TrEMBL record:
It is an enzyme of class 5 (isomerase). Residues 16-290 form the Helicase ATP-binding domain. This is DNA 5'-3' helicase. Its EC number is 5.6.2.3. The keyword ATP-binding applies. It comes from Eiseniibacteriota bacterium. Its cofactor is [4Fe-4S] cluster. Coiled coil: none annotated. It holds the Pfam family DEAD. Keywords: ATP-binding, Hydrolase, Nucleotide-binding. It comes from the Bacteria. It catalyses: ATP + H2O = ADP + phosphate + H(+).
Length: 710
C-alpha cells in the first residue's frame, strides 16, 4: 500500500491514532501535512512545509517516518533545533507513534559530544569542597547503571556544584583521544554513535546536523531527512562555519600544553611528558632532546602569552575598516564589530606581531608532534599511548589555530566577510570570519545527502512566498523556490482569539513602550511579555517601568534580573507580571493560557544594517540586481516578527492582545507583508490609556465567552 494511503488510514477517525489516543481529533491541516510528507518520502526531492502552532507537526512527520522505516531499508534522520525538543521527540512523541501503530524499529538519539559523560574524565575528576564531592559521587553511582550517559538526564543533588563539575566530566571534543582511550569500551559517546549507526530513525539537533555537514562520518548516511524549526537552520549552519581566533583560544592551548614553571611539578602535557615518558626513555640522545624540547616549550609559553596580547591589542587599536566608529552588536552596548576587507586594513604595514605569533604556533605544533614520537618510543604502556595521542591532538589544534589566524588576517576569500569584535571594556579584540551566504553549502553538504528532505516550521514564508527562505538554504533559482512548498492553515479561530494594535507613542522607543505597558498593567492584571530588539532600550524601559507599574507587580528583565530560562519559569507562575526580553524570547518559548495574554513588540525586528554579515550579504544581492532591503531585510524581519507574535496564541482556547509600538506597521511602504502575517487588522492608537482600556475590554469579553462555553 502506498505510504500516503497508510498515513491517511492511520489518521482517520477510527484509525490507529484515534484508537491509541482517546482524545484524538482528526485535524485537516495535520492530515494534509502528513500526506505531503509521505509523498515527498516516496518521490524524493525537497518539501518546504509551513505549519502553524496547533497543526500537530511532529506527529505529521513522525508517522510517515515510522511507516517508511518499517517498510523500507532507508534510514531517517529527524533534526530539531533544541536539545529539549529533541528529548521530547525521542522520549515522548516517537515512542507514542510507534506504540499507536504497534510496530517497532530501532531508534536512537544523538547529541553533540560534549553532552555525554566521559568516563575517563570522571575517573580523574577532583572535587573542591563537600558539594562537589557529593556531585561526583552521585554521578559515579548514576553512571554505573546508565545506558546513555547523557548529562542532561543526570539529576544532581546540588545544582550549583553540578554547574561547576559538569564541564570537567563532559566528553571534550577537543581533547578526546578516542582511538587509544583506555575507557573507550565504556565511552557513552561511542555507544551513542553505535546506536545511531544501528538505528533506522535517529533524532538529532540542528547543531549536530550542522557539524555532521562538515565532519564526514559523524552521522551515519541517511536517505530521508526531516528538519523541524527549519527557519533556524541557516543561522546554525553559519555558526558552524564561522571561524574565530581570540587571545582566549590561544591561552587555552597554552594551558593545555603546560609548562614546568610556576609550580614544583609544572602543568599540562609538558609535565606529563616529564613524569610519564622521560624516566622510561632508554636512549640518552632522545632523553636529551626531549628535555631540551620541554624546557624550550616552558620558556616559550611566557613569551607567547605576551606576543599574543600584543597582537590582539594591535588588532583592537588598528583602524580596522572604513566604517570608523564601532558597530553596536545587535544594538547592544556589550560589544562592537568592525569589518575589514584586507590585511592592510586590519594591521597596516606592521606585520611583525602577526609573524611572531604564527611562528609560536608552528613551533608548538612541531615540538608537540615530535614529543609524541618520543613518548611512543618510551613504551610507557597505555598511559604513554594516551599521552602520545593527546600530544598529536593538541599539536593539530596549534596548526588549526595558526591556519585560522592566517586566513582571518589575510581576509582573501571574496565569499567570506571578516571582522573584529571587541567588548567595551577590553583592550584586545577577537578576529572572526564567516561565509556571506551558505545556500550552496546547505544544499550540497546537507540536503543533497538525503534522497528526500522535509523542512518544516511555523514560519518559512512571507505572506505565502517562500523565496527568501528557499534562497537562504540554496533551494531557489532566479528568485523562486526550486522545491515543493506548502502552507497549512491554523486550526485555531485566531481572528476571534486576538486583537492587534499599533501604538504611536513618539520617537523614544523605551518611553513609548514603558508608557503603554504601564497602562496595560493598570487596565488588566494579566501577564505581559515585551519583546525588544536592543538590550540598551530594554534596560531603559525597565528603569522607567520600575516606577510606573502598579505596586506589587513582578517586573523581570532578561539578563538584568536573571537568565532567560529562570525568568520564564518565574513568569509562568506569576499573575500580572511583566517580562522584558530580547533575542531568545522571540521564539521557542511556550506561554499557553493565562501565562501570557498581552504581548508587546517594541519594534519591527530588522537586523542591524551595518552588521558585517548583513552588510556583505546586501552587497552580494546588489551585484545580483536585487534590492537588499526588499529582497532580504524585510522578509527576514517578517519571519522574526511572526515568530515573536506566535508566542501569544498557543492553544485553541487562548486569547490575547498584541501591541506593536512601531508606527511603521501602520504607515511604512513595506508594511504589507508584516500586516499580512497577522490574523487580524491592527488598529492605530496614539493614546496609551485608551488603547489599554480597549485591550482590557476585549480580554474581559473573551473571559465571558469562555465561561459561557464551559
Ligand atoms: S573516548 Fe575516552 S576520552 Fe574520549 S569521550 Fe570516550 S571515554 Fe572520554
Amino acid at each position: 500500500m502506498a505510504l500516503e494511503t497508510q498515513v491517511r488510514a492511520a489518521l482517520e477517525p477510527g484509525g490507529a491514532l484515534a484508537r491509541y489516543w482517546p482524545l484524538y481529533e482528526e485535524r485537516h491541516a495535520q492530515v494534509e501535512l502528513a500526506r505531503d510528507v509521505a509523498r515527498t518520502f516516496e518521490r524524493g526531492g525537497v518539501l518546504m512545509a509551513e505549519a502553524p502552532t496547533g497543526v500537530g507537526k511532529s506527529v505529521a512527520y513522525l508517522l510517515p517516518a515510522v511507516l517508511h522505516a518499517v517498510e523500507t531499508d532507508e534510514r531517517v534522520v529527524v533534526a530539531t533545533c533544541t536539545k529539549s525538543l529533541q528529548d521530547q521527540l525521542f522520549e515522548r512523541d516517537l515512542p507514542a507513534v510507534l506504540e499507536a501503530l504497534g510496530v517497532s524499529v530501532p531508534i536512537a538519539r544523538l547529541k553533540g559530544k560534549a553532552n555525554y559523560l566521559c568516563p575517563r574524565l570522571l575517573e580523574m575528576a577532583e572535587a573542591t569542597g563537600d558539594e562537589e564531592t557529593e556531585a561526583i559521587d552521585a554521578l559515579k553511582q548514576w553512571a554505573a547503571g546508565e545506558t546513555f550517559g547523557d548529562l542532561d538526564r543526570f539529576d544532581a543533588p546540588d545544582a550549583e556544584a553540578w554547574r561547576r563539575v559538569r564541564p570537567r566530566v563532559a566528553a571534550d571534543p577537543q581533547n578526546c583521544s578516542g582511538a587509544v582511550c583506555r575507557r573507550g569500551r565504556e565511552c557513552f559517546w561511542a555507544r551513542a554513535r553505535r546506536m545511531a549507526g544501528e538505528a533506522r530513525i535517529t533524532i538529532v539537533n540542528h547543531a549536530l546536523l550542522a557539524r555532521a555537514a562538515e565532519v564526514e562520518g559523524l552521522l551515519p548516511p541517511y536517505d530521508v531527512l526531516v528538519v523541524d524549526e527549519a527557519h533556524r537552520l541557516e543561522g546554525v549552519l553559519l555558526g558552524q562555519l564561522e571561524r574565530s581566533v581570540s587571545r582566549h583560544r590561544i591561552e587555552d592551548l597554552l594551558r593545555q600544553t603546560g609548562s614546568l614553571r610556576g609550580g614544583r611539578r609544572g602543568s599540562g602535557l609538558v609535565a606529563r611528558i616529564r613524569s610519564t615518558a622521560l624516566p622510561l626513555l632508554v636512549s640518552e640522545s632522545t632523553r636529551e632532546r626531549i628535555v631540551g624540547d620541554i624546557d624550550m616549550l616552558s620558556k616559550r609559553a611566557d613569551e607567547a602569552r605576551e606576543d599574543v596580547e600584543t597582537l590582539f591589542r594591535q588588532v583592537a587599536e588598528g583602524t580596522g575598516g572604513a566604517g570608523g566608529a564601532g558597530i553596536p552588536k545587535g544594538g547592544s552596548p556589550y560589544g562592537t564589530r568592525k569589518r575589514f576587507r584586507s590585511q592592510h586594513e586590519l594591521l597596516g604595514r606592521e606585520l611583525q606581531g602577526l609573524q611572531v605569533v604564527l611562528e609560536h604556533c608552528d613551533v608548538f605544533a612541531n615540538v608537540l608532534r615530535r614529543s609524541a614520537g618520543a613518548v611512543t618510543l618510551a613504551e610507557a604502556g597505555a598511559p604513554g599511548e594516551e599521552l602520545a595521542a593527546e600530544l598529536e591532538l593538541v599539536s593539530s589544534r596549534w596548526t588549526q589555530v595558526r591556519d585560522d589566524l592566517l586566513t582571518l588576517t589575510e581576509a582573501l576569500d571574496p565569499d567570506w566577510v571578516y571582522w573584529k569584535s571587541q567588548s567595551p571594556h577590553s583592550k584586545v579584540a577577537e578576529l572572526r570570519g564567516s561565509p556571506v551566504m551558505i545556500g550552496g553549502f546547505a544544499r550540497q553538504q546537507l540536503l543533497a545527502r538525503a534522497r528526500a528532505a522535509v523542512l518544516t516550521s511555523a514560519t518559512l514564508s512571507t505572506a505565502g512566498d517562500f523565496s527568501w527562505a528557499a534562497d537562504r538554504l540554496g533551494l531557489a533559482r532566479g528568485g523562486a523556490p526550486e522545491c515543493e512548498v506548502a502552507s497549512y492553515p491554523s486550526p485555531f479561530p485566531l481572528h476571534e482569539q486576538m486583537r492587534a494594535y499599533v501604538y504611536d507613542g513618539g520617537a523614544d522607543e523605551a518611553v513609548a513602550v514603558s508608557e503603554v505597558v504601564a497602562q496595560l498593567a493598570r487596565a488588566a492584571e494579566r501577564n505581559a511579555l515585551v519583546l525588544f530588539t536592543s538590550h540598551e532600550r530594554l534596560k531603559r524601559a525597565r528603569a522607567r517601568l520600575a516606577s510606573l507599574l502598579p505596586p506589587g507587580r513582578t517586573l523581570l528583565a532578561q539578563e538584568v534580573d536573571g537568565p532567560a530560562g529562570l525568568l520564564v519559569e518565574r513568569f509562568r507562575k506569576a499573575k500580572g507580571a511583566v517580562l522584558l526580553g530580547v533575542q531568545s524570547l522571540w521564539e521557542g518559548v511556550d506561554f499557553p493560557g493565562e501565562t501570557l495574554e498581552m504581548l508587546v513588540v517594541a519594534k519591527l525586528p530588522f537586523s542591524v544594517p551595518d552588521d558585517p554579515i548583513v552588510e556583505a550579504r546586501g552587497e552580494r544581492l546588489r551585484e545580483r540586481g536585487q534590492d537588499p532591503f526588499r529582497a532580504d531585510a524585510v522578509p527576514e524581519a517578517v519571519v522574526r516578527f511572526r515568530q515573536g507574535v506566535g508566542r501569544l496564541i498557543r492553544r485553541s482556547d487562548d486569547r490575547g492582545v498584541l501591541v506593536v509600538c512601531d508606527p511603521r506597521l501602520a504607515n511604512a511602504s513595506y508594511r504589507k507583508p508584516f500586516r499580512a502575517s497577522l490574523p487580524v487588522e491592527p488598529e492605530l492608537w496614539r493614546d496609551a490609556r485608551a488603547l489599554a482600556a480597549e485591550a482590557a475590554r476585549f480580554l474581559i469579553e473573551r473571559d465571558e465567552v469562555a465561561r459561557e462555553d464551559v
